[in-house]
Specification:
single chain, alpha+beta, Aminopeptidase, Alpha-Beta Plaits, 6-stranded mixed β-sheet, 4-stranded antiparallel β-sheet
């Protein structure tokens, strides 16, 4: 990596752009302004859209930038996000989370991969292409937002009114992973995601567990019982109506997905335990690529500090997310889960459902897409093994919305690997991955 590129990359990483935290709004604005100036140096015309303030909280800005190109060539819309996950638990970081630190060819920092490293490498590849192409180039539009990690609410609301502005032929995204051993992967589908919080309240205050034990109902125990009721003993989802409409993969899709499958042993080495989540009897690929999920993201109740505090807590909360697949109704899935929770509230408890974010549904793309054929040719030039297709278990909900608003064919190719530890302490991205994303971008624009 050239020293000027490393300097720019590090500058971008140092912005503490935690988009979900209002305390970091200024960092998000500064980051978006930096990116605007960077793109304008390449001949883009940039603008920052400041979403409306809701509930007294302003959202991070959305950057839209456009560079004119030759008539008759495909128009490329590129999407990425500059917001990053919170750094908690900060004590587990081996290096300061917003101080880029290079160790053995890897850059450690929050956002090093997700998604600053990925999208910035792609934009550097575009700069490389433009340096050689002169004035002869496709038109390029760039959308970079600061809310992807918390649901993209502002961009989802704004995109339908930007149809003319976003209109494009290809929607390029660099925010996913390559296959094992860095084999190139074209994402042919993504699951959708919705999330919400449930709260159980019981006593009117925390109670002495001796004086009230055996009398007062315990919200901590109740929340455990309630979330456990979401699944059957075999790991299948126990919520009636949740799977309504699920579209199973075609046989060619299933075969292609299994071709790129990671072994159970590799998963076990990665996560440190057996990969036994989900429904028994289904392969890892089936469970991750084509099946919906309901996951408990966090449980909070009572005392968790040093030593003991013998109380019966007055309330408990659970953070829950759902990964959705094509055919499922976003609202229908949520309504089914809500009805199940209401029907299974433990005795003595009151339930409230809060902070519902509908997100977006999942989608799958036709394998015969001309854009896929072009991408496969380009990636085959980069790697003699050729590209594989993946149906990613993760979600980028706004991609569905941008696809609809722009009319563009999505082309999702990323270069992440399990070692990157995204969403965890000690996130990193290797210089080799950065170089691959950069080369992919340069070759893609040349092919277009």
């Amino acid at each position: 990596m050239e020293e000027n590129v490393r300097k720019e990359y590090y500058e971008l990483l140092k912005f503490e752009s935690v988009g979900a935290d209002p305390a970091h709004l200024r960092d998000c604005v500064d980051c978006a302004m930096w990116l605007k100036r960077w793109l304008e140096a390449l001949g883009f015309k940039g603008e920052l859209a400041m979403p409306d303030v809701k509930g007294g909280v302003a959202a991070p800005p959305i950057l839209f930038a456009e560079r004119a190109g030759d008539e008759g060539r495909p128009v490329v819309l590129f999407y990425g996000h500059y917001d990053v996950q919170p750094v908690d638990p900060v004590g587990e970081w081996r290096t300061p989370p917003f101080e880029p630190t290079e160790v053995d060819g890897r850059v450690y920092c929050r956002g090093a991969q997700d998604d600053k490293g990925q999208f910035f490498a792609f934009l550097c590849g575009l700069r490389d292409y433009l340096a050689g192409a002169g004035e002869s180039a496709p038109a390029v539009k760039v959308v970079l937002e600061g809310q992807e990690e918390s649901g993209s609410a502002a961009l989802m609301e704004l995109a339908p009114s930007w149809r003319r502005k976003l209109a494009a032929d290809v929607l390029a995204v660099c925010d996913t992973s390559a296959a094992a051993e860095m084999r190139p992967a074209i994402v042919a589908g993504l699951r959708g995601v919705s999330h919400f919080t449930i709260r159980l309240t019981g006593p009117n205050r925390d109670l002495h567990s001796g004086e009230y034990g055996g009398i007062a109902p315990n919200p901590a125990q109740a929340i455990a019982e309630l979330v456990a009721s979401l699944h059957n003993p075999d790991g299948s989802i126990a919520v009636a109506g949740f799977r309504d409409g699920v579209e199973p993969p075609t046989e060619p899709e299933r075969r292609a997905a299994e071709t790129a499958a990671v072994s159970e042993q590799a998963y076990e080495e990665d996560i440190g335990c057996e990969p036994v989540g989900g429904q028994m009897g289904k392969t890892i690929t089936q469970r991750n690529s084509f099946e919906p999920t309901i996951e408990v993201n966090g449980l909070h109740s009572g005392y968790g500090g040093p030593g003991a505090k013998t109380v019966i807590p007055s309330e408990a909360i659970a953070k829950i997310s759902m990964r959705l697949v094509p055919g499922q109704s976003v609202r229908g899935a949520f309504d089914a889960v809500r009805a199940h929770l209401e029907d299974n509230v433990p005795r003595g408890m009151k339930l409230s459902v809060e902070d519902y974010n509908p997100g977006a549904g999942g989608f799958r793309l036709p394998l015969a897409s001309p854009v896929f054929r072009l991408a496969a040719d380009v990636l085959g030039e980069m790697d003699a093994r050729g590209a594989v297709f993946q149906w990613d278990g993760a979600s980028i909900p706004v991609v569905s919305v941008l696809r609809e608003a722009s009319g563009a064919a999505p082309l999702i190719v990323g270069w992440g690997q399990p070692d990157d530890r995204i969403h965890s302490p000690n996130e990193s991205y290797s210089l080799a991955q950065f170089a691959k994303a950069r080369e992919w971008s340069r070759r893609l624009f040349a092919a277009l």
